[in-house]
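Table S2 (continued). Query chain:
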Amino acid sequence: MPPQGSSRRLKRWSRARRDERCKLKRNSTQLNGYCTRMGDGYKITVVGATRALLKAHGNLTQAAVSLKVDRTSLYNFIERNPELNDVRTLAREQLLDVAEGRLAQHIEGGDIRAITFYLKTQGKDRGYTERQEITGKDGAAIEARVSADELRELSAAQLQARLQALLAAGQMSGG
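Corresponding output:
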């Protein structure tokens, strides 16, 4: 009979009962339909990984926590079972659909931040973009102080260093 009172005692009692069943079945039993316990570790099943990925919206870390395995173990399992990549993609797409639906609700409700965000990301072809132009003194062109021949003589590392220095000085745009 389960103990009365705190949920912590009940969880401890449930864990002990589960562990007893594991021993009776030679350390092999289903845990929440996600994993099979084998000795001290857990063996991931395709069905369990599918459920965990859907529940975690494709987030590997959250799915691994629910499976009680390391993230890299789950990643390696997905590599060996390519159909799970489709499950992960599906879970992410479902969450994206939810987010788009909520964004639409905010736009229809008149939320100016949502409207601005949507126009900046989806209305670019209609001119809704933020653009930054960098020019020289008084709007003139930026003057180049290095010739093309000088640049050809520099190594890739030297070119990268020069570019970083220009960007740091604010003389060039990074995009």
